[in-house]
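Hi L.,

As promised, N-alpha-acetyl-L-2,4-diaminobutyrate deacetylase:
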Amino acid sequence: MSSLRPSPITPTVDFDRDGVQHGFLRLPYSRDDSAWGSVMIPICVIRNGSGPSALLTGGNHGDEYEGPLALYDLARTLDLKQVSGTVIIVPAMNYPAFRAGTRTSPIDKGNLNRSFPGRPDGTVTEKIADYFQRELLPRADIALDFHSGGKTLDFVPFCAAHIRPDKELEAKGFAAVEAFSAPWSMKMLEIDAVGMFDTAAEEMGKLFITTELGGGGTSRAETVRIARRGVLNVLRHAGIVAGAVEMQPTRWLDMPSGDCFSFAEDDGMIETMIDLGEPVEQGQVLARIHSIGRTGAAPQEIRARMSGLLAARHFPGLVKAGDCTAVVAVLVD
Ligand SMILES: [Zn+2]
């Protein structure tokens, strides 16, 4: 690590200065329309003395909106007098992807959440990952990274933490998830944890929580309310913002194995057979994929490999072989 060159990113904020600062992470990016141009990633630092620090992020994927809506709002409204410690807010981590409204970056096709630990001499997306890895994550006592389903998935709204080998950190993660107070709370299993921001934070021993709050490449009034309440609750829980956590009832879900996930084996038009949040029996048909190239073909049935409830579904009406079609989670209580 120490042999890596410095990050090319220059912050226009001072992380050790008290007060509210709105600025940028300036990343040089020379290109056709701007020879000595830069990518300007918005950042807000709110610091009031020594104390715990939180790193709050959205737009890790550029087509997920609850996090950015809650975080631009928080940066504009959080009262310095209410804060003890530091809040670092980056509402649109992969800013080029966020500007384009796409999951990955239009510059290099980089999926920021598969690019960690990143490289200071890599692509634009890898340079962003490297800056979070070496400069921002080490400053955080707690990190909250907002996600939603993006254009291709839709979720029941939940806050989540991972099962971790360190049980003390795991319990702290689940307590922070409870404080977030989404309608659902998830003990989350990753399909593909290599290169994730989550993994980077956890390998650093950080308290890390995340969300999936809807999807479809848009947001809903309810899910944005959940995000706004949740982020304030987490800051209160961490002792950074004054006041009591506004606890709401939540129900815990678990993703006990890879049997949670179903994938399409054919291209076609997807017919959802049950809706999000509804109970599922093992073997039940969750969705059917209809062939569109010809008439008379029987649809492919997607069957649940375990019982539980439908926690996520494919969003667009057309599906391709290999797409994740459904996620079943188990109700814990
Ligand atoms: Zn995401």
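The chain has a mean pLDDT of 96.

Thanks again for sending the construct details.

K.
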